[in-house]
Every structure is written in structure tokens, then in C-alpha cells.
Amino acid sequence: MVYFNEVPEKVVYEGTTTKNPYAFRHYNPEEVILGKTMKEHLRFALAYWHTMTQDGSDPFGSPVNQRNWWGENEMETAKNRVEAFFEILQKLDVEYFCFHDIDIAPTGDSLEEFLANLDVITDLIKEKMDQTGIKLLWNTANMFSHPRYVNGAATSNNAEVYAYAAAQVKKGLEISKKLNGANYVFWGGREGYESLLNTNMGFEQDNIARFFHLAVDYAKKINHQPQFLLEPKPKEPMTHQYDFDAATTMAFLQKYDLTENFKLNLEANHATLAGHTFQHEINTARNYNALGSLDANQGDPLIGWDIDEFPSNIYDTTLAMYEVLENGGIQPGGINFDSKVRRTSFEQGDLLLAHIVGMDTFARGLRAAAKLKEDRFFDDLKEKRYASYTTGIGQEIVDGKADLESLADYALTHGEIKTESNHLEYVKSLLNDYLV
Fold first, then answer.
1. pLDDT tens-digit series, residues 168-194
2. How far apart are CA 167 and CA 211, in angstroms?
3. Which of 198, 300, 306, 322 is most buried (most C-beta within 10 Å)?
């Protein structure tokens, strides 16, 4: 069965003069930029959850999405979704995908039934992967939706919940090996607290660190070592989540001796919720040598929750891609569209249109970022701004040759300090020239 009749075969690059809505205007996968193709730079991935299971409901309204893969029962629907998902992957020419365990298979009436359903569906997924060459960027366990996880999973006050979560992750790692996953993600959906009045925060963080070490140990035991990723988010659904932002998460990883195995999966909308820009979070991860992968979406400053819009802001994608280029790339991670269509975009073809917009926006960001890098736009700005540290007393500070006495003597024997303007408004004006 063909699920997406809007595009006969593939969405292709047609340039900015095209009137075809099912064509790329900017994403040209084989175009070479800074020695690599766009496809190699961007490593796009589709999110199974928003693409295949999101129904268009919101806190104020019922489902609206029109989808044609519903079967007679949950397993038939799950199998149909696999077929439809790989069709859209092929039509968009996307090489990678991501999923939570409950996205792909019904949970059934017991853990045993859930694990058996996962075996059936991942067998089908593996067949499709072998046929198409499409790869698993990462998978993860949903340990936040079911009522058992109301108080968290690895930070739960209930040891039986902790054990159940461990069973899900054990299976997730086995699936990752089966499908040759490049990464394995932990997103602590309810790993946090709603009130400190009844929470032992230190104990809970000790427990989740133990959990991560158990996962690393089991991956080694089964001879499969994906890149482990933690995904920061400051709040929602918990009042305060432990992986608040990139810096907080890195402090946790350093404290619990996990930096050798873990990097960060960063989401643009989560950065907004933390009061940061996407660029800030990526830059922070880079400074720790911990940039792992990206969830591509955007928030809305007028709406105070995680709305997961498809990215369309060229300014943000340009600065994000500049950080990726400065990092030397993002592999074995990628750019995963953790994005959902708006409730008013309920037709099935909107799934294609939305991904085209996101891919085009990142392609424009990549082109602009590459030009900024070639022109040394930011390099020259920063070299000039910090030039005082390349000679004299500044060089002594950098080289560790200065102490408080020598610095005080220097300050006493030199005149009034002259500060230079940053001309920041002009810098932003010049930056805008790269975006058009």
C-alpha cells in the first residue's frame, strides 16, 4: 500500500523558483560544502513519535490528524506504521530515524507481552532497514507516560518502578544492538521533583547515576557500545528536572564519573524553556567536548510550554550549524526532527510539507554558517576583542606566569584603562547579510 500519494517517488531539490510544495527549495543533499555534502553535514533523522503517533490533540482539544494506517487492532496498526514510516523516510531521502519503545509497539497487558511485541515490530523494522539502507540514529525507553512513572523512573521512590525501568532499558539496549543503533538516549521525562518538601534530591540523583552505570555495564556485556546521550530539559512535566540544561547535566556527569560514556542530546525548544538560546546550549556542550546530537525544533516566545514546532527560523539554524561546524561535525549523532505539525495542519501530506520546511531551514543555516566560517567572521571579531591576552601582561595571565602581586603592580603602574566599544548593533547588521 502507498500511504503518501502526494509525492509519487521522492522529494527532490528544485531550487527557489519552484512552485512545487513537495520539493526542496534549499536542501540539495549532494551539494558539497566545506568538503562534505549537505547530507553528510546534516545527518537528518525522523522522530517516530511525532511523525507516526502524534494525533493532533492538545490540552484543549481532541485528536484531529487524518491518518490512513489504522488497522483492525493495535499490532496491525503498529505494522502499518512501520510501512508508512519507511515510505516517508524514502520519499524525503532521510537516512536516519529515532524512536521510543512504546512508539513502535503496543504495550499489551504485561511486560512480557510488551517485550514480545517489540520483538515482532523490530524484526519488521530490521527488514525495512536491510532493504533501504536506512539507519537507526538512536532509540530510547519511554519511562514517563505510564502511571507507574508518576514519581519518576530511575529517581522513583519505589524500587519496583526502578526495576521495571531497568527491564525497559535492558530491552532497549538489546534492540539497539539488533538494529545497530549509533546512539542510545535517556530523556528524564519525570526524573526531577515537584516539591523538595518530600524529596531527597541527593538520594534520587545517586540512584539515577547508579542506573546509568548499570546501562553502560550491560551494553559492554552484550558487546554493543552506542554513544550514550542525556537530553537536558529544565521543567515540564516536573517542576524541576535534574538535567536542567547543558551545564547542569555536565556537572552531574562529572560528579558521577560518566563523562567517558555520555554526551548530550540538545533540543532547541528545551533551550528556550531553560532561558537559553539553542546556540548557547550547543556551545556549552562543545566547551565540554560533549556535543552528541540535536533535536531540531523551535518554541514560541508567546507560549510557555514545549510546543515542538518544525524549525523555520534561519537565524537560529545558522548559529546552531556554525557551532556544529566548529565542532568538526556531529557524528555519530545527527539532526533529529523532534517536531510535530500544528493542530491546524491535520492532513497527512502536512507531514511531508513540515519536514521539507525543517530540512530547507537547516540547509539555509548550513550555507550561511559555512560562509561565516570561510570569511572568519566570528574568528576575526573574537581575536580582535581578546587581543590584549596575546601580548604583555595578558600573555602572562594566559601562560600562568602572573600572580596577584604582579597583576596589582601592573595596575598601579599603568594609567587609566581605555575600553573599546563592541559595536554589537553593527555586528548584528553584518550577520544579517549572511542570512539572505
1. 999 999 999 999 999 999 999 999 999
2. 11
3. 322
